[in-house]
Design goal:
The protein is mainly alpha-helical. The chain contains 10 helices and 4 strands, in the order ββαααααββααααα. Strand 1 and strand 2 form a beta hairpin. The chain crosses the membrane at residues 12-40, 82-100, 112-131, 175-208, 214-236, 243-262, 274-293.
């Protein structure tokens, strides 16, 4: 069975893209990330124009993140106050990111810029997460559980102004880092079609010292609203959200996210980080390969969504 995508201007197999949505949704629930870092490249590999792939990916991120966030919220694993503070910065970053995409598209630099950003950014983050997860898995676990924050430990973050209390996470810290983290995640979410969880999760753990049990749920909570905003702005500003493709991907993604969340509960956190780091590096390597290989078509006359 095939359907015609009006914005992407091509016919696709419904089964293929349903399976793709379910796979990415499963990974979203498993790792606590939006899944866009994997979905957008895979869509381009299957022939979807990059602009449409990135904009439509954000709608899938919304659906898969809502499903996972609701599950974590029912279990009390979401710090809503911290999520709202990060969201304040995330909305600003999303608006800036969508307009930056519009500028790059108009100048014909969008595809190259995004590909290079993916390779550099994912390669760096994936390497850090992979090696950290390997090192953590080699350390013996303490009977009372591991804690990243030690008594009397202070950092430069604790000296920043605008202190706030986050009772759920048992934190008393400056609101500046969460806002900046949210803004950065919102920007890259709009530009790369990703949820940004692979950035937010390490930031919550290592910068803000949020308890590990609350990290994934709080990350998904913020991703829901940032990705929803990015989807709307891409549709209005760049006209690049393909609603037919989005529905197919979401249908598979919602189901996959539930199974991913259940599977994630059976794995240790350090093992999840090793798998996530390896997956990110694999995507970065594939995109680097595509940049290095001579394309079959040296010129393209295709219209880019959002271009004047």
């Amino acid at each position: 069975m095939t359907l015609y995508l009006p914005i992407a201007e091509m016919s696709v197999s419904v089964i293929t893209f349903l399976a793709l949505g379910a796979t990415v949704g499963f990974l979203s629930g498993l790792f606590g990330v939006g899944g866009g870092f994997l979905l957008a490249p895979l869509l381009t590999f299957l022939g979807i124009p990059p602009g449409v792939a990135i904009a439509t990916s954000t709608s899938h991120v919304v659906a898969s993140s809502v499903s996972g966030a609701m599950t974590h919220h029912r279990r009390g694993n979401v710090d809503v106050k911290l999520g709202l503070v990060m969201l304040a910065g995330g909305l600003v970053g999303t608006y800036l990111g969508v307009n930056f995409v519009k500028i790059l598209t108009a100048r014909g630099l969008f595809e190259l810029t995004v590909s290079l950003t993916y390779v550099i950014f994912l390669g760096t983050v994936g390497t850090i997460i992979l090696f950290e997860g390997i090192n953590a898995s080699r350390k013996p676990r303490s009977p009372g559980g591991s804690s990243l924050r030690k008594p009397g430990q202070h950092s430069w973050i604790e000296r920043l102004p605008f202190k706030m209390r986050f009772p759920r996470s048992k934190l008393y810290t400056s609101a500046v880092p969460p806002v900046v983290i949210g803004m950065f995640v919102g920007f890259i979410s709009a530009m790369m079609g990703i949820g940004g969880g692979f950035v937010m999760i390490p930031a919550l753990i290592y910068l803000l010292r949020v308890p590990t049990g609350l990290v994934i749920g709080t990350s998904l909570f913020q991703i829901v609203f940032v990705s929803a905003t990015a989807t709307v702005l891409h549709a209005v500003e760049n006209k690049s959200v393909d609603i037919v493709l989005a529905v197919i991907l979401i249908a598979g993604g919602v189901l996959g996210a539930q199974f991913g969340t259940m599977a994630g509960e059976k794995l240790r956190g350090e093992h999840l980080r090793v798998l996530l780091g390896a997956l990110i590096l694999l995507v970065a390597a594939r995109m680097a390969f595509d940049l290095a290989v001579r394309p079959s078509d040296l010129y393209s006359l295709a219209l880019v969504p959002g271009a004047p």
